[in-house]
Amino acid sequence: MTYGQLEGLINKWSLDLEDQEKYFLHQATQVNAWDRTLIENGEKITTLHGEVEKVKLDQQRLEQELDFILSQQKELEDLLTPLEEFVKDQSGSVYLQHADKVHGKTYRLAENIDAQLKRMAQDLKDIIEHLNTFGSPADTTDPLQQICKILNAHMDSLQWINQNSGGSLFVEEIGTVIGLLQVYLCM
User: Fold this and answer.
1) Where is each Nucleoporin NSP1-like C-terminal domain found (predicted)?
2) Going by C-beta distance under 8 Å and a sequence separation of 6 or more, which residues neighbour residue 90?
3) Cα-flanking dihedrals φ and ψ of residue 141, to 5°?
4) What does each C-alpha distance from 10 to 2, 23, 51, 125 come to in angstroms?
5) CA dist 133 → 107, 136, 177 (Å)
6) How far apart are CA 100 and CA 92, in angstroms?
7) What is the three-class DSSP state of 139?
8) Measuring CA to CA, which of 41, 52, 58, 101 is 20 to 30 A from 77?
9) pLDDT digits 0-9 by tens, 71-85
C-alpha cells in the first residue's frame, strides 16, 4: 500500500465519519423533539383526565337533581289524582275553598320545579361552555365524544319517557336542555 492510497482511505473514512455524525445529530434532534412532544401530551392527558372527572361529578349531580325533580313530579301527580276525584264528588263553596288551597300548594310546587329547571339549565350551559373551551371531539376515543354519546343516550331515554308518559311538560323541558347540550357539544 502506498502513501497516496493510505491518504485516500483516510480521506474517505473522514468523509464517512462526517456523514455519520450529521446523521446521528439529525436523529438525536428528532428524538429530542419526540420526547418533548410526549411530555407535553402527557401533561395534556393529565389535565383532560381531571376535566373528565369533573364532568363525571357534574353528571352525577345532575342525575341526582333529575331524580329529585322526577320524585316531585310524581308527588304532584299523586296530589292531583285525588283532587280530580274530589272535584267530581264535591260542589259549592267548600269545593272552592279547598280548591284554592290545593291550587296554591300546586302553584308553589310548580314554581319550585321551574326554579330547579332553570338552575339545571344554567348548570348545563356552564358545562357546555366549559367543555367547548377544549374544542370539538376529533375521534371516538376522545372523552368529549364519549360524553356526546352519553348525552345522546340520555336524550333517547327522555324521548322514550316522553312518549310513554303522555307528553309531560317536565320531560319535554329536560329534552330541550339535553338537545341544546347535543348541539353545543356534538357539532
Assistant:
1) 1-101
2) 98
3) -90, -5
4) 12, 20, 61, 73
5) 39, 9, 19
6) 13
7) coil
8) 58
9) 998 988 888 888 877
Maximum alpha-carbon separation in the chain: 132
Q: What are the pLDDT digits (tens) for 94-124?
A: 656 766 788 888 888 888 888 888 888 778 7
Whether 162 contacts 175, CB under 8 Å: yes
Cell numbers that stand for 10 in this block? 483516510
Is the Cα torsion angle 135, 141, 145, 150 positive or negative in sign?
negative
Number of C-beta neighbours around residue 185 at 10 A: 19
Predicted model pTM: 0.36
CA dihedral 12, 18, 22, 28 (to 10 degrees): 110
Amino acid at position 166, single letter: G
| Calpha distance 146→59 (Å, rounded) | 13
Letter for the amino acid at 168? S
Is 166 exposed, middle or buried, given 0-12, 13-18 or 19+ CB atoms closer than 10 A? exposed
What's 142's DSSP letter?
S
Core vs surface per residue 74-95: b (16+ CB within 10 A) or e: eebeeeeeeeeeeeeeeeeeee
